[in-house]
Write a structure and sequence with these properties.
alpha/beta; five-stranded mixed sheet; ROK; ROK family transcriptional regulator; WH-like_DNA-bd_sf; WH_DNA-bd_sf
Length: 412
């Protein structure tokens, strides 16, 4: 009896190889110490011969490298461990924010290999011009990455606004952007990355979402559910539930900066009143502290506030306390709604956490139903102000880890 096609449910040889590559590389990426080939065979259930063949492919494709064996006692030659390679594919992270542009390159192991920040007020700058400046920075980053033996295989752009599935920035009120076709504008410039099957050339997402993903995948790993708040001129939040980013029906969740903390309060750029940003955004805190925002360089605003607070300046301490109180009101509502036990303060908030955390925790204690017997942790971000750009680049390299066959096909 002859068969003209494979039976239903059969796995093609090529597909099986792709699955094995992803399985082994994923185990190496998740390991707390460099696993040996024998360790991988035990962890995956694959034969040692299969693991060895897969590892050789990964080594040849510069996806993994061998590390020195760990000291061991007893007879036998110690096995060499395997780690993600520090050369080969890398991700490009881009960020446009109200008062800065940022670019970073992250290698497969999640290490930041290049980072540049350009400080400027971008509100009077046209979107096309801001993106053109960002491309110039990205080209320099690409050239530097190439010298380090890295190949940029995809880019992700973080923006402080609402982004639809096509990468259109529907609204970024603090930038004054509305219906900006970011992919089309970037396509007018020479390609920044090399095309690899399975990896999008460009991802555009909300900066708070990408910052939350950066925090989720940072080392050492933290909780699998948390609220990450990015405090800049605007305030955004990324919500992580059970290890996955919660996006909402249209992908626009996390707009905590526009939760009203004083319903009849100050007007906001979004058109509402009393939004959190008007009381706890960076410019609001600087103004409340009695600092002249126009005379204070953007890159020193947070540092200056921290310096004054450390010195006991009454105006700075009062401004930070009031901002923390407003932030705590908004956070308490989110915690009550989603039953989260960890709040991460990122962006400019990370450096100000010593003064923001106490009033935030006080509001949580008085407003969260379960706080008396189930405390909520409020802490600074592991990545701080770099979280969005690093999270953006990391979202690219994680796709390589999940689908290494595309890179191997391109490099083979």
């Amino acid at each position: 009896m002859s068969l003209t096609h494979a039976p239903a449910g059969a796995v093609r040889q090529g597909s099986l190889r792709e699955l094995n590559l992803a399985l082994v590389l994923g185990r190496i990426a998740a390991a707390h110490r460099p696993p040996s080939r024998a360790d991988l065979a035990t962890a995956t259930g694959l034969t040692r011969a299969t693991v060895s063949a897969v590892v050789e492919d990964l080594l040849a494709g510069h996806l993994v490298s061998e590390s020195d064996p760990a000291p061991r006692s007893g007879a036998g030659r110690p096995a060499r461990g395997l780690v993600l390679a520090d050369q080969g594919p890398a991700g490009l992270g881009l960020e446009v924010n109200v008062d800065y542009l940022a670019v970073c390159v992250v290698d497969l192991a999640g290490q930041v290999r290049h980072r540049t920040v350009h400080r400027a007020d971008l509100r009077p700058v046209a979107p096309a011009d801001a993106l053109a400046q960002l491309v110039e920075m990205a080209v320099a980053a690409r050239d530097d990455a190439t010298e380090r033996g890295l190949t940029l295989v995809g880019a992700a752009l973080a923006v402080p606004g609402l982004v639809d599935d096509a990468g259109m920035v529907r609204l970024a009120p603090n930038l004054g952007w509305r219906d900006v076709p970011v992919p089309a504008l970037l396509a007018e410039h020479p390609p920044l990355v090399e095309q690899v099957p399975g990896v999008p050339v460009l991802i555009v997402d909300n900066e708070a979402n990408l910052a939350a993903l950066g925090e989720l995948h940072s080392r050492p790993p933290g909780p699998s559910s948390f609220l990450h708040i990015s405090g800049e001129v605007g305030i955004g939040a990324g919500i992580v539930l059970d290890g996955a980013l919660f996006r909402g029906v249209r992908g626009w969740s996390g707009e905590i900066g526009h939760l009203p903390v004083h319903p009849e309060g100050r007007p906001c750029r979004c058109g509402g009143q009393g939004c959190l940003e008007q009381y706890a955004g960076q410019e609001a805190i600087v103004t409340a502290a009695g600092l002249a925002r126009a005379e204070l360089p953007a890159d020193t605003a947070t540092a200056r506030l921290a310096e004054l607070a450390e010195a006991g300046n009454a105006d700075a301490l009062r401004a930070l306390h009031d901002a923390g109180t407003a932030l705590g009101v908004a956070v308490a509502g989110v915690v009550n709604l989603l039953d989260l036990d960890t709040v991460v303060l990122g962006g400019g908030y990370a450096a100000l956490a010593p003064w923001l955390c106490p009033p935030v925790l006080a509001e949580i204690a008085s407003r969260v139903l379960t706080a008396a017997w189930s405390p909520v942790t409020v802490r600074p971000s592991t990545l701080g102000a770099e979280a969005a750009a690093v999270g953006a680049a990391g979202s690219v390299v994680r796709r390589i880890v999940a689908q290494p066959a595309g890179w191997l096909a391109r490099s083979g």
